[in-house]
Amino acid sequence: TIEFVRATQLQGDEEPSAPPTSTQAQQKESIQAVRRSLPVFPFREELLAAIANHQVLIIEGETGSGKTTQIPQYLFEEGYTKKGMKIACTQPRRVAAMSVAARVAREMGVKLGNEVGYSIRFEDCTSERTVLRYMTDGMLLREFLSEPDLASYSVVMVDEAHERTLHTDILFGLIKDVARFRPELKVLVASATLDTARFSTFFDDAPVFRIPGRRFPVDIFYTKAPEADYLEACVVSVLQIHVTQPPGDILVFLTGQEEIEAACEMLQDRCRRLGSKIRELLVLPIYANLPSDMQARIFQPTPPGARKVVVATNIAETSLTIEGIIYVLDPGFCKQKSYNPRTGMESLTVTPCSKASANQRAGRAGRVAAGKCFRLYTAWAYQHELEETTVPEIQRTSLGNVVLLLKSLGIHDLMHFDFLDAPPYETLLLALEQLYALGALNHLGELTTSGRKMAELPVDPMLSKMILASEKYSCSEEILTVAAMLSVNNSIFYRPKDKVVHADNARVNFFLPGGDHLVLLNVYTQWAESGYSSQWCYENFVQFRSMRRARDVREQLEGLLERVEVGLSSCQGDYIRVRKAITAGYFYHTARLTRSGYRTVKQQQTVFIHPNSSLFEQQPRWLLYHELVLTTKEFMRQVLEIESSWLLEVAPHYYKAKELEDPHAKKMPKKIGKTREELG
Ligand code: ADP
Ligand code: MG
Fold this sequence. Notes:
Blueprint: E1 4-10, H1 22-27, H2 31-37, H3 44-53, E2 56-61, H4 67-77, E3 86-91, H5 94-108, E4 116-120, E5 123-125, E6 132-136, H6 137-146, E7 153-158, H7 166-181, E8 186-191, H8 196-202, E9 208-211, E10 218-223, H9 230-244, E11 249-253, H10 257-274, E12 281-286, H11 292-297, E13 307-312, H12 315-318, E14 325-330, E15 333-340, E16 345-352, H13 355-363, E17 371-375, H14 379-385, H15 400-408, H16 425-437, H17 449-456, H18 461-472, H19 476-486, H20 500-508, H21 516-529, H22 534-539, H23 544-561, H24 575-586, E18 590-594, E19 597-600, E20 606-609, E21 622-630, E22 634-641, H25 644-650, H26 676-679
Helix pairs in contact: 4-5, 6-7, 9-10, 15-16, 15-17, 17-18, 18-19, 18-24, 19-21, 19-23
Bound molecules: adenosine-5'-diphosphate and magnesium ion.
Magnesium ion (MG) binds at residues 67-68, 159.
């Protein structure tokens, strides 16, 4: 068992009360009654009046008050979608956009994709009729490319603004500008109760509309001592809560899919072993790649007598509200991107969450009744080790994508763009440099023809460049597949605990000389040859859902090829061409083997091949990687063996022969060892 001590209480606005039983919850008759019971409802008229009177309105309200699901409906009812005008509501997360749109469609009694729809990258569930569009912030950003003044929208609601994702932050600047020359456009900025004053100041002192909270007090408990293995501690604590605490569902915050799946498996396993000694415990995961039918399950009411435990990523922090949660279990971590502009290395790491985040999480326990939050860290750690707030993403990510987009929108002076928080100067500079190296910008920083094409593709600049390069190497069929597989990566292979050996063998069977990109290509090609069969996936320990998604992505990218003037062609088994095309996009991400292991070519950073890679044992001299992931070390994920001469072929402006010489080879006499540079 794990010992917790009660330390503080998160104040509520309501008196503590007994948790409602699930039968009571089920009795809440109609969906309309639920709508009327939400905290925002009594403010409907006041809110609509404020929107009518002000062009920009900041809306602040506790999570679950009805901002996301209700406000767009109010606007719809009020006639903001007359004459075919649309309402956009942005979400930082794909899952939230899908789930919320589905909910609103149900509330309005329409089919999802008709009046209400969602639009996320590689998946568009909207039609001509769609007037309420839930979309990721990244998708609205791309809307600017086709409609720079957002002329078909009457209202833009930037939701979950407190998340401060990169795309949301860029949207602020663009929308502020559009609002100036479109006085009839309504702009709403919705946020949990954080930081709203900043938004108001940014939007020229726009008024803040507060939806009063409705939250019960939450008792906060900390562990007495730090926990070494938080996953194990989580599992133990969930069972402990289940056995010792009165009814009420549990919400657990973990950092990502792998962790969540592991925790769910462990929980189910232990419940099975305890059998009828404990009451039924429903274990439900929720994370970005979870298929939507599984996502919907977390919202279903818990059957009487049972208890539900939802194991979630940050998504449940503010984007989704699950009814009936009384207990929150918070290990205090989240997965965070960080970026080093000096080295150009981006990494995704599990880091302690901020205090603001921890308190949002705790708040989830007080929605329906007084709740409890168990933190798997000490009160001391909370006080001394957690940052106050999370640093906005714009200050800890690479900006290549966004800079390319802004350049395509004709915004040249990025240093003076209206940022809520400016990104580090070096990061902007490096993005410009990289886009120049990729041939997207010329030496004056202007968009090139190739850059314009790259911006057309909804993927990272390096991936776009790879796709464009497939024209030259006549292998676009293969490159499309690689691109599609890379965009669903890390969830291709299925590795159940009880069949690890079989699963690993199946994976090794796909290995091809050259590296992981070719392995991905191989998996996809064999699956296509099987007639896209689910049975084939099952037999080969491949995740059918991921493959289906890869197929969708591939189709969409294929549909865009014509726009970027790339013809369909196949390399006919000549994989060197595929590898060269990949190198043409990823020449920035290269490493070479030195006596002391792998070092990145330009920056000389120490890196390691991920143990899951097909090249883990071969240790080729030169390679490129798709991404770096920092866990215990800087791991390169998805690596491909290359030849150093290819770097000179695909990026002669970036690499000089000299730096690609083998430092350990015998020094050649100077006369003979002339570099290409010296020879002109
Ligand atoms: P906010 O945006 O203010 O956090 P929402 O509009 O997302 O609030 O949620 C309002 C209420 O709608 C929630 O309390 C929840 O009861 C309900 N709700 C939202 N999404 C779903 C869903 N997918 N299934 C069932 N209920 C939902
Ligand atoms: Mg919301």
